[in-house]
Amino acid sequence: MPVVKVIEVISHSELSFDDAVKQAVAEVSKTIRNIDSVYVKDMKCHVKDGRITTYGVICKVSFRVD
């Protein structure tokens, strides 16, 4: 039976929520193998002068432990 571990990461993007999630997975993939899924726990935007400047996400990343 495989063991699955979950870590929580924060990521942001100037483009979109989708890009922020992709950046989170890309960064985690540098040190973690066997990623199974990503759960987006929370989303927020930073606003300056009435315009969105960055999109932020908090993600839970699940991966199988060898």
Automatic annotation (TrEMBL):
Matches recorded under InterPro entries: Dodecin (IPR009923), Dodecin-like (IPR025543), Dodecin-like_sf (IPR036694)
Source superkingdom: Bacteria
PANTHER family for the chain: CALCIUM DODECIN
Name of the molecule in the record: Dodecin family protein
Organism encoding this protein: Polluticaenibacter yanchengensis
